[in-house]
Design brief:
It is a single chain. The chain is built from eleven helices and five strands; from the N terminus they run H-E-H-E-H-H-E-H-H-E-H-H-E-H-H-H. The chain has a five-stranded parallel beta sheet, with helices on both faces. Helix 3 runs antiparallel to helix 4 and helix 4 runs parallel beside helix 6. The longest helix has 25 residues. Bound molecules: thymidine-5'-diphosphate (TYD). Thymidine-5'-diphosphate binds next to helix 5.
Length: 250
């Protein structure tokens, strides 16, 4: 019971909401194209007069970025999936406190590359008890749950071939991180778990086909965001100009 009381207190602290901004998270497997689509959406929001902060997990605040290095280097892996889940949650708690809550309370939109759904999928797939993950999420996230989650769905074949094609700045292939080296079966199970989460919460999730061309994916996301937040974006509408396309005269 003491533990419950502590969780409630944490939830209350992080859940003190003013939230004039909107909190959008992007989820998907490796190579789904999240970062490209986040910057495309940010450009369109800016063109519609909305200020958006782009951030990511694990990371998004100085302490969380330090934890990110540990997690993605694989140094925490020997401690087991539960401890990895604890560390993702620790990073998330700091990220909410230092970056997400201040931005939302200042009226900005937050576009976040991965959030708590990634823990449910990645650490859930690795066998961590869902009830334990729920408790961690309650402590780390509190009331700062996403208003909308965009799941960019791609097959592991497409996603992993994109990851393999990524090069580091000197042209040599980039080293895969701790989670990119998992087997194709693991990637397939994660894909299904993301789709299951989306099916369970249709009011929050929108699923877009990430195998389409980047312009098409960006259009699909923009349509979905306009449909979800008509009052915020009513003046812009789905046909709002895409600044990137305007620049190349399309
Ligand atoms: P990153 O390089 O940001 O990958 P991506 O471009 O695919 O988002 O690395 C983050 C990795 O951490 C990614 O493989 C997913 C994993 N992860 C978890 O396992 N649990 C989590 O809670 C989060 C946020 C990420």
């Amino acid at each position: 019971m003491r533990d419950d009381a502590r969780v409630d207190a944490m939830r209350e602290t992080r859940g003190t909401l003013q939230r004039q901004g909107r909190f959008l998270t992007f989820e998907g497997g490796e190579g789904a194209g999240k970062s490209t689509q986040i910057s495309r959406l940010k450009e369109r929001l800016n063109a519609a007069g909305i200020e958006a902060v782009v951030t990511r997990e694990p990371g998004g605040s100085p302490t969380a970025e330090t934890i990110r290095e540990l997690l993605l280097s694989g140094k925490v892996k020997p401690l087991g999936a539960e401890i990895e889940a604890v560390m993702f949650a620790a990073a998330r708690a700091d990220h909410v406190d230092e970056t997400i809550r201040p931005a939302l309370n200042a009226g900005r939109w937050v576009l976040c590359d991965r959030f708590a759904d990634s823990t449910r999928v990645y650490q859930g797939e690795a066998g961590v008890d869902p009830a334990f993950l729920d408790r961690l999420e309650a402590v780390a996230v509190g009331g700062y749950r996403p208003d909308m989650t965009i799941l960019i769905d791609v097959s592991p074949e497409v996603g992993l071939s994109r990851v393999a094609a990524r090069s580091s700045s000197d042209g040599t292939p980039a080293d895969p991180d701790r989670f990119e080296t998992d087997t194709k079966e693991v990637h397939m199970r994660r894909r299904q778990l993301f789709l299951d989460l989306a099916a369970a919460e249709p009011a929050r999730f929108v699923v877009v086909d990430g195998s389409a061309a980047a312009d098409k994916v960006a259009d699909d996301i923009w349509q979905a965001v306009c449909a979800r937040f008509p009052l915020d974006l009513g003046h812009a509408g789905p046909a709002a100009p895409d600044p990137a396309r305007d620049r190349i005269g399309g």
